[in-house]
Design a protein that fits this description.
2 copies of one chain form a homodimer. Chain A is mainly beta and 140 residues long. Helix content of chain A is 11%, strand content 47%. Chain A has 2 helices and 12 strands, in the order αββββββββββββα. Chain A is globular, with a radius of gyration of 15 Å.
């Protein structure tokens, strides 16, 4: 198997989210940097140590912003694995389809906002890592 | 001036947001209940006692969900005032155009997610309460 260095890096983008701070608090404007029309939005809140995600999407892109706390995101494209820390609202990560992602909540009550370009479809999820590896192999 | 009781209540809707809790944390699915296509999204985080908003929109509707902490929302349609407490992710409030809204953050780090049906346009804001009252009088 040929090592495809940079695959994850080039397909997964960390994107700065406009973020304005004043004495009243802070404002994060998300939609300007989401690289698609938003069809689905959900918020996940979890306790420290919770591990979520652990699936890939066939078609759906996901743009993730941690609006409170700190969340580690591990992305795996079938060959390379990359780790990102979302610890402020001013940075988001674009996870394209065909990438396995796992999120670890590093602080109690950390909140991940997820914006998607497709509505929820159960068949779009690949929930088993071996199925994912086979899916990627078949796409080569 | 005729008192238009129920005006605020009938135009402003509290809406249940699908919310799923398990041992890992909780998931709030917003887009299913937002009564419009989402054009703009922003998150506001503020310290206890912060008062934000204090404006009305001419065209833009806003759907607000408090994903962390507790936020009091006061809505004023030019005649009636109503107060709502958003203290869980499972309820949102739809604030239609032509309603003055003010949000008071009741806990440190409370987070309000706001979904809008229009992009940001400065001219859509009415930031002065007297201008708002005049705007509403002119619409009668």
């Amino acid at each position: 198997m040929i090592k495809k260095d940079n695959d994850v890096r080039t397909s997964i983008q960390l994107i700065s989210v406009p973020h304005y701070v004043d004495e009243r608090g802070d404002l994060t404007v998300v939609e300007e940097v989401v690289p698609f029309d938003i069809s689905r939005v959900f918020a996940v809140r979890a306790m420290k140590g919770a591990v979520r995600g652990k699936h890939a999407h066939k078609k759906c892109s996901q743009f993730m912003v941690c609006v409170s706390g700190s969340i580690q995101v591990v992305c795996y494209d079938g060959v390379n694995e990359s780790t990102y820390l979302l610890d402020r609202p001013s940075v988001g990560i674009n996870v394209p389809p065909g990438v396995w992602a796992q999120e670890t909540y590093e602080e109690n009550g950390s909140i991940l906002m997820v914006f998607c370009d497709y509505p929820y479809v159960a068949d779009d999820y690949i929930n088993d890592i071996n199925d994912f590896r086979e899916y990627k192999r078949n796409m080569e």
